[in-house]
TrEMBL record:
Domain of life of the organism encoding this protein: Bacteria
Protein name: Glyoxylate utilization-related uncharacterized protein
Protein's organism: Catenuloplanes niger
InterPro entries: RmlC-like_jellyroll, RmlC_Cupin_sf
């Protein structure tokens, strides 16, 4: 397998923030059917347009900087200190917003071809 060296700020916009997953070309070291990794840069006030529902994967969202709130049907979780994270599993409907500028890293598994939230 070849080696890929990149920069999240440069590479992420090409795939709506995703750096690794099934959607990368076969043969690219970033192609994976096991896991997806996303670099998310969110200005203050940024909000997901719709709830994510019917999710079949597990996810981990890690705060790199700023403040980021994940909303689940039964509670909201605000990540405010660098390194704060939250993990949720299949069936957890969720949405999010950034009260302040935020950078987050999301890891999701497995990588499911064809799954995409509208918008």
């Amino acid at each position: 397998m070849p080696v890929y060296v990149g920069n999240a700020h440069t590479d992420a916009p090409a795939e709506r923030g995703w750096l690794l997953g099934h959607f990368m070309p076969p043969g690219d070291p970033r192609h994976s059917t096991d896991v997806e990794v996303k670099w998310g840069v969110h200005p203050a006030g940024d909000r997901r347009a719709a709830w994510a529902t019917g999710e079949t994967r597990t996810a981990l969202l890690l705060l790199v900087s700023g403040e980021f709130t994940l909303e689940f049907r039964d509670r909201a979780v605000t990540l405010a200190a660098q390194g704060d994270y939250v993990v949720w599993g299949p069936g957890e409907d969720h949405t999010w917003h950034a009260p302040r500028d935020a950078v987050v890293c999301t890891v999701r598994w497995p990588s499911v071809p064809g799954w995409r939230l509208p918008g």
